[in-house]
Structure formats: structure tokens, C-alpha cells
């Protein structure tokens, strides 16, 4: 695939994400599956797409400063991705970046547009080392230069203070690690490390995780199911259960899709049986496909809305996992488009949904059983505030301290795991472990 086609695909992916509210990982996978794309071009497209989305506000601020009048949406996407390449990607000469942008803009919006794009990009190129950008105050400068919407910044500032909020915002634009989790049903961690050699290092965050220098989805070790891609923080959900692995448990995952945590739990608690539920049947197919690939036989998938009570589940499970839908603030490094969707109203609505799922799921836990609540967000309304409310209204549950083996992650004083994205170079995450006691009168 030549460079113009790679850039065109990057443009089409970006247009879908920015103008049609698409998700970066889903949209990229759709195009990668649709076309035959070499690994080198996949890396180029991914860098352009993620880099442009992560820096969207800053790139558009530069564009606004160096253009007059309104820029059409299609042309704005081409200019934004080209400005990103000029400022952050030095492997391609500037003249080539501009030339390809002009060709693409002519194809998308006509010859006159090509001249317009050429003029703007050459002007920005000339001033790249000293861009003439105006800001009203230091806060606006920080938010624009880090491409953080004001509402998201204010949420973080209110909950964590200015200094911590700024560290979190800066971390959103950092690159995440290539984290994988070994599959104990097919290989030991030691054997996988030996096979991967210098390309891999052990995780300090989760004992079941490894970190690759470079991710290769064509690797036979991946295609044969020796490992699966999963962030280190996400992998802590299974290890937070903390019960003897050899025992037999009945386990329920109420919001399982796309299934990474269910698959991990099933392979870790290999003597146990696991029901993985989700209300979207097409997402359950992902679990079916992966459990076959990984050699997992103790998962049963079931179409089930987590907000609706299933009487046949009542008091049946030793372990119930509620990995609830969330705002996703903790995974912005990998899904940068999320930061442009965050509003107070959205967070408040999703926190109510989470609590509804938690309240419904409590009925499925046996006395003495474990109820594990997790999110990939760092907004306190979705995390500790939901847990505190639940404990106040359900006196037969207590908060248990989570204990991790071989991890640098520290449990908070109240026993929960609250991982902020600036602290461990992984996703932001929250996990609380609740135990069901005998009901108090």
C-alpha cells in the first residue's frame, strides 16, 4: 500500500471518529479488516489517527490562528492530521506531508481547496518552531495545549485539586504500554517469556501481565492463544478476587462483553464455572470466539440485561463481578475521543446506571460470597461514592481490603484500588471488593 492510500485511510478513519462520533479502536479495526494493509502502514495510520485525536483541540487552535474564516469539516480533518504530522512526525519530509495533503484535499473537496490547504500548511511550516498562538489566561493555555475540554478539566480539578488534575491531563496524551496477559491454559509465564525473549518484560502492576516492546498481532503466539491483549489495570480485576484458585466456585460476570475480564477469571479459576452476561448478543460472540481460541471450556455466555432481575440467579453465586459501563475517563490514553464526550450530566447519568446494576447484582451473591465492582474511570461519582452509598443502604455487605501479589500498586486506606493514569503508566481503574454477610436485623 502506498503512502497516499495510507493517508486516505487515516483521513477516513479520522472523519468517522470526529464527525460521526465513532470510536477509534473500532473504526481502525474495521478499516484494517476491510483492506489488506501492511504492518508498517498500520503503524503509520494508527499514529496519525491517535495523535490527531489526542491533540485535536491544540491542532484546531493552530489552524484557527493561521486561517481566515470557516473551514469545512472534511478539510479541517485533512489539515489537522497534516499539522500533526508536521509538528510531531519527523520521519516524513515536510514537503511530502504538504504535497500528500494537497492531493488528498483535491480528491475530497476539489482543486481550489488544494491551493487553500497548501497555503495554510506552508505558513504553519514556516512558523513551526515559534507558533504565534494567543491565549486568554494560563488555564486556557494549559487546556488547549493538552487538548483537554474545559468541563473535563474542571471535573478533575474539583475532585483531585489543580496540581493532580494537571498531572492526570498530561498523562492522557502519553503512549500506553503494549500490555498482554499470558494464557495459563496453554503456556506458563516463564515459557512465554523465554519464547518472546528480549521483546518482553514482566509487569510490575499485575502478576499475570507482560509488556511487549512492540505489538505484533500476526505473531503465531498471539494467533494460537498463548496470550491476549489486556491492559495491566484491567487484569487486576481477576487478581483482586483473591480466593484460592483450586476451589470450585460459581461465578457470574454481569456486564461481560467484550470479555477480557471473564476470560481472565475463567482461565485463572480453572476449576470453577462462569456465566458471562451482556445485553448485546453481538458482543457475546467476541467472548465465544476468544474462549475457543484460548482453550477455555468453563464459560457459558448468556444474553442478559444487567439492570433486569433474573430470579434463577438469586443467591446462586460465590463470586459476582460487576464491571459496569462507565464514562471511560481512565482509558483516554487508548481511546482519546472519550475526553471530548465527558460532561457532568453524562457522568451523573452513568453513575445512576452503575448503581442500578450494583443494586440488582447484589441479589445473586450467596451469603459469604464476593461482589466485585470495577470501572475504567476515575470520576469519584462512579467509583467510591457509589460504593459508599451501597454500603449505607446494604448493611449485609462489608468492604474487604484488596490484596495483590507481586504488584507495586498500593491499596487505598479504605481497601479499594484506585489507580490514576499518571501514577503507574497504565489505565485508570477502580476496584472495590464487597463481602455479603448474614443480614442484620
How would you describe the overall organization of this protein?
The protein has helices at 3-19, 24-34, 39-54, 56-65, 73-88, 94-109, 111-126, 138-145, 150-160, 162-172, 189-196, 220-223, 232-240, 260-268, 281-294, 344-361, 384-393; strands at residues 178-182, 200-202, 209-212, 227-229, 250-253, 273-278, 299-303, 317-323, 365-375, 397-400, 417-419, 429-436. Helices cover 46% and strands 14% of the residues. The model has no long low-confidence stretch (mean pLDDT 95). The chain has 17 helices and twelve strands. By secondary structure, the protein is of the alpha/beta class. The termini are far apart. Strands 5, 6, 7, 8, 9, 10, 11 and 12 form an eight-stranded mixed sheet that branches. Strands 2-3-1-4 form a four-stranded antiparallel sheet. Helix 1 (3-19) packs antiparallel against helix 2 (24-34). It is found in: Cytoplasm. It holds the Pfam family RsmF-B_ferredox. One of its GO terms (cellular component) is cytoplasm. Residues 156-437 form the SAM-dependent MTase RsmB/NOP-type domain. It catalyses: cytidine(967) in 16S rRNA + S-adenosyl-L-methionine = 5-methylcytidine(967) in 16S rRNA + S-adenosyl-L-homocysteine + H(+).
Amino acid at each position: 500500500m502506498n503512502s497516499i492510500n495510507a493517508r486516505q485511510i487515516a483521513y477516513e478513519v479520522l472523519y468517522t471518529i470526529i464527525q460521526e462520533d465513532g470510536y477509534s479502536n473500532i473504526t481502525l479495526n474495521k478499516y484494517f479488516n476491510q483492506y489488506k494493509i501492511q504492518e508498517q502502514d498500520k503503524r503509520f495510520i494508527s499514529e496519525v489517527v491517535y495523535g490527531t485525536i489526542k491533540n485535536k483541540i491544540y491542532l484546531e487552535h493552530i489552524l484557527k490562528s493561521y486561517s481566515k474564516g470557516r473551514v469545512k469539516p472534511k478539510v479541517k480533518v485533512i489539515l489537522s492530521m497534516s499539522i500533526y504530522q508536521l509538528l510531531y512526525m519527523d520521519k516524513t519530509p515536510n514537503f511530502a506531508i504538504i504535497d500528500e495533503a494537497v492531493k488528498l484535499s483535491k480528491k475530497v473537496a476539489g482543486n481550489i481547496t488544494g491551493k487553500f490547504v497548501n497555503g495554510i500548511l506552508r505558513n504553519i511550516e514556516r512558523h513551526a518552531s515559534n507558533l504565534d498562538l494567543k491565549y486568554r489566561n494560563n488555564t486556557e493555555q494549559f487546556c488547549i495545549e493538552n487538548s483537554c475540554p474545559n468541563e473535563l478539566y474542571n471535573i478533575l480539578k474539583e475532585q483531585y485539586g489543580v496540581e493532580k488534575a494537571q498531572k492526570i491531563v498530561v498523562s492522557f496524551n502519553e503512549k500506553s504500554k503494549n500490555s498482554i496477559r499470558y494464557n495459563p491454559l496453554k503456556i506458563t509465564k516463564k515459557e512465554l517469556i523465554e519464547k518472546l525473549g528480549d521483546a518482553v518484560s514482566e509487569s510490575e502492576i499485575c502478576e499475570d501481565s507482560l509488556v511487549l516492546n512492540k505489538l505484533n498481532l500476526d505473531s503465531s503466539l498471539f494467533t494460537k492463544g498463548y496470550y491476549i491483549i489486556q491492559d495491566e489495570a484491567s487484569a487486576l480485576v481477576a487478581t483482586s478476587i483473591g480466593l484460592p484458585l483450586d476451589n470450585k466456585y460459581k461465578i457470574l460476570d454481569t456486564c461481560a462483553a467484550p470479555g477480557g475480564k471473564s476470560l481472565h477469571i475463567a482461565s485463572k479459576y480453572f476449576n470453577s464455572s462462569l456465566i458471562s452476561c451482556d445485553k448485546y448478543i453481538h458482543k457475546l460472540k467476541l467472548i465465544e470466539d476468544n474462549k475457543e481460541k484460548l482453550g477455555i471450556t468453563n464459560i457459558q455466555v448468556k444474553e442478559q440485561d444487567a439492570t433486569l432481575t433474573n430470579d434463577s440467579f438469586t443467591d446462586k453465586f460465590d463470586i459476582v463481578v460487576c464491571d459496569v459501563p462507565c464514562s471511560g475517563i481512565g482509558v483516554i490514553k487508548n481511546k482519546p475521543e472519550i475526553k471530548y464526550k465527558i460532561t457532568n450530566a453524562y457522568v451523573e447519568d452513568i453513575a445512576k446506571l452503575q448503581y442500578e446494576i450494583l443494586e440488582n447484582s447484589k441479589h445473586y451473591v450467596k451469603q459469604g460470597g464476593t461482589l466485585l465492582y470495577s470501572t475504567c474511570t476515575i470520576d469519584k461519582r462512579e467509583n467510591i461514592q457509589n460504593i459508599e452509598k451501597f454500603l449505607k443502604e446494604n448493611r449485609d455487605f462489608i468492604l474487604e481490603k484488596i490484596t495483590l501479589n507481586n504488584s507495586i500498586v498500593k491499596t487505598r486506606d479504605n481497601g479499594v484500588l484506585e489507580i490514576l493514569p499518571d501514577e503507574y503508566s497504565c489505565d485508570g481503574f477502580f476496584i472495590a471488593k464487597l463481602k455479603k454477610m448474614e443480614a442484620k436485623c
